Amino acid sequence: MNVLITDYDFPDVEMELDLFRSAGFKASSAQCRTEDELIAAGKEADAFLL
C-alpha cells in the first residue's frame, strides 16, 4: 500500500513517514495547494492522509 501525506502544517513529517515505512507501507509526502497538484502527486497513492 502506498500512502501520501499532504497539506501538513508541521516543518516535516519524517516521523510519520518512518512509522508507515516501518509497518511495511510505501510512504511519501507532498505539499499540494491545488486539486491538480494533489491529483498529480497522488497518482500512485492508495491512501491519502490530509
Summarize the structure.
This protein is α/β, with parallel strands linked by helices and 50 residues long. It contains two helices and three strands; from the N terminus they run βαβαβ. 32% of the residues lie in helices and 26% in strands.
User: What structural category do the secondary elements indicate?
Assistant: alpha/beta
Low-confidence stretches: none
Task: List the strand order in the largest sheet.
Answer: 2-1-3
SS summary, helix count: 2
Tell me, rounded to a whole number, the average pLDDT.
96
Q: Termini, distance in Å? A: 16 Å
Assign an overall shape: flat
- Give a short account of the largest sheet: 3 strands, parallel
Question: What Rg is obtained from the alpha carbons, in whole angstroms?
Answer: 10 Å
Roughly what percent helix? Answer: 25-40%
Number of strands: 3
Order of helix and strand elements from N to C terminus: EHEHE
Strand content: 25-35%
How do the strands and helices of this protein lay out in sequence?
Elements: E1 2-6, H1 14-22, E2 26-30, H2 35-41, E3 47-49
Parallel strand pairs: 1-2, 1-3
Note down, in words, how this protein is organized:
With about 50 residues, the chain is of the alpha/beta class. The chain has helices spanning about 15-20, 35-40; strands at about 1-5, 25-30, 45-50. It is built from 2 helices and 3 strands. The protein has a 3-stranded parallel β-sheet with strand order 2-1-3, covered by helices on one side. The longest helix has 9 residues, at about 15-20. It is flat.
Summary keywords:
50 residues, 3 strands, three-stranded parallel sheet, alpha/beta
